[in-house]
Design goal:
This protein is of the alpha+beta class. It is built from 3 helices and 4 strands.
Length: 66
Amino acid sequence: MDQAIGGMATQFLTVSEVAGSLRVSNMTVHRLIAAGELPAVRVGRSVRLREQDVDEYLSGHLIKLG
């Protein structure tokens, strides 16, 4: 789902989509949201995350191996 916010197209993802792409459980994504590590928006009973926020979270948690 694309939305224009501030002149930029924003992609919103479901918890299941984020969990699937990160290969973690839905509960892990919900825990990250509850801990304030991943910002999310509640739409009715559903939760949506901006793709940009997920990308920023991952960029901030990169580790160097080796």
